[in-house]
Amino acid sequence: ISYKQIEALKAIGVTEVVLAINYQPEVMLNFLKEYEKKLEIKITCSQETEPLGTAGPLALARDKLIDDTGAPFFVLNSDVISEYPLKQMIEFHKGHGGEASIMVTKVDEPSKYGVVLLEETSGKVEKFVEKPKIFVGNKINAGIYLLNPSVLDRIELRPTSIEKEVFPKIAAENKLFAMVLPGFWMDIGQPKDYVTGLRLYLDSLRKMSSPKLANGPNIVGNVLVDESAVIGEGCLIGPDVAIGPGCIIDSGVRLSRCTVMRGVRIKKHACISSSIIGWHSTVGRWARMENMTILGEDVHIGDEVYSNGGVVLPHKEIKSSILKPEIVM
Fold first, then answer.
1. Domain check: are 40 and 153 in the same one?
2. Signed CA dihedral, 159, 164, 167, 169: sign only
3. How far apart are CA 261 and CA 71, in angstroms?
4. CA angle 224-237-84, nearest 5°?
5. Domain extent at residue 96
6. 117 in helix, strand or coil?
7. Is the peptide bond before 239 cis (omega within 30 degrees of 0)?
8. pTM for this predicted structure
9. Under a CB-based contact definition with an 8 Å cutoff, are residues 113 and 140 in contact?
10. Which of 127, 159, 187 is the last residue of a domain?
11. pLDDT by residue (tens digit) across 120-135?
12. Which InterPro entries does this one have (predicted)?
């Protein structure tokens, strides 16, 4: 789950978030502790001992999702980034009186996704068409749902797809409705899409004249810099860059279209573009990272090393260049 999602939920009065996790829940919860404190919102974990798909985790977390009021609850896919008009979605859900609401977004290439067909006036979902070869519509599931507790009665505690097994049944009963998502949307499950999603998010901050964006003589375009990060003289940062907490950027560094995560050190005159630099990594002097280079946690790149799309697993030291895209284990 992203900070932006938690922030959006807090803004509409949500007091508790349940995180469905299968792998290393303690890592995620430790990471989210500061957000829990900062936003004053309770974050708990529902751990799967085996992957349960996109619906099974809801059955597993049933007791945490239902309260005495019988109020609907939000379900958000953690690997998407978008605007989150959750208040408008609540009003939409109340207005149609159905059992479930989903957010849909318009895309240029619907053949890559499952398309949602709906009545334009009411938003009632008629059916789903998986990766259509001929054009039938351009609206796809955006991974943002508002569900009545009764939906949980439709889900067994087993690996289940909410998109392929649960929603089509609700739609067949005319109880599923779709709201068109305004603004940007991006599935950021892949590194190159993450970088694109960052650009879209920063663009949205610019349109809102957000004070979060950095400015200054060394900033080009849209840039986020954590207040605890230190940037040296003569750097050129941007466009489309995010620099996390505790980072140290030495003098003469060039950054563009990249994310630099918590605790990273980038040494003098390094150049990084279209890449993701993982937590507590180091990039050496005059090194160059480009073409979707991905550094895992605690990776140390030597001086003058070049990476052309290398994917480096955590806790590695790289002393020679990576000349073509490959995974370094």
1. yes
2. negative
3. 37
4. 25
5. 3-187
6. strand
7. yes
8. 0.88
9. yes
10. 187
11. 899 999 999 988 888 8
12. GMPPB_C, GMPPB_N, Mannose-1P_guanyltransferase, NTP_transferase_dom, Nucleotide-diphossugar_trans
